[in-house]
Amino acid sequence: MKVKTSALALLVAVTLSGCVSHSAETKPATAPEKAPATQATNLQQRDLADGLYEMALAPKGDALYVASAEGFKDVQGGMVYKLDPKTLKTIGATHTDLKNFGMAISPAGDTLYVTNSLDGGVSAINTADGKVKARVMFKERNKEGFPYGARQVLLLDGKLYIGGVADPGVIWVVDAKTMKLTKTIQNAGKWVTGLLYSEQTQRLYVANGGGEVLVVNPRTNRIEKRWKPLGEKEALLLNFAEDTATGRLFVTDSSKAKTTLVLDIRTGDVIKKLPVGDSLAVKFNAKRHEIYITQRDAGKVLSLDATTYAVKNSWSLPPHPNSLLLSDDGQTLFVTVKQSFNKDHSTNGPDNIVRIDLNK
Known about the structure:
It is a single chain. The protein is mainly β. The chain has a single domain (7-23, 42-357), classed as Methylamine Dehydrogenase, Chain H (7 Propeller), CATH 2.130.10.10. It is built from one helix and 28 strands. It has one helix at residues 7-17, and strands at 43-49, 52-57, 64-68, 78-83, 90-96, 103-105, 111-116, 121-126, 132-137, 149-156, 159-165, 170-175, 180-185, 192-198, 203-208, 213-217, 222-227, 240-243, 248-253, 259-264, 270-274, 282-285, 290-295, 300-305, 311-316, 320-326, 332-338, 351-357. A hairpin with a 4-residue loop joins strand 12 (170-175) and strand 13 (180-185).
């Protein structure tokens, strides 16, 4: 079966990888790029499947779920893989009729919420049997007639917030129990990308491709502030992390400004621009006082000291380290590593899943 893939669809796929400047990123068909044979002893790596994106850990820590869009050439539907988080072995799998990208899990661990980015929807999947139990499809269409891309999903107080990749973008608010759309926050700027909720400020932070950080009050679902930390300089802000103890908000840009910004979470003032180059996913580890950043172009994952911002460690994971997930105890870091797209939207091999033991 031939799958029609619009320019926006590929854009969504790559913005989930976090790098719009590579949006139809092309390379000649050559042998798959692989990580070096000699890797750190604290690292486990496994070829898993095409189209790996975001991950979620079961609350009990006994299952690692990985969203997969599968292939973009002649492949219909996607998968959700269930792995043993200690060994990375597959312990379950769900075949889905739509492709999967962003992911969140309920506090009870009984439901996965997965964005179906190319079709403009979000699905609720029962973790007990792997079945899709409910789904909402958003009605918005761009000028080409394609759905707005549903990128990241954030679960907050029984509500799902989903960023819509469009120009202008939107933020959909969905009742997580009924899977009914309750609100659409309009005028969210070009390409809504990252989402983060801060317990400290009781506000939702939204990144977009126009270089803005939006501050949203989740009680009213209104945009209260619009920060542009780099001013008129071109920026495509992507993903967030927060240090609640110091009130720092970290936001990445892998393709335009190529930096990680450290902002004051209350004012939006720039505290520092980290000179780390292209920066995609970011996580803050309060247990170890470290910051982790994926460098998609450089093929590396960095560990930074959260006070001095000095690089403490670096893992080479070519070709394209993508999403990050940190265990609740702060001692294990999971990474998805993507292959490059060829001109026909195929890749040269499966994407990888990586487990890093931060204690070794």
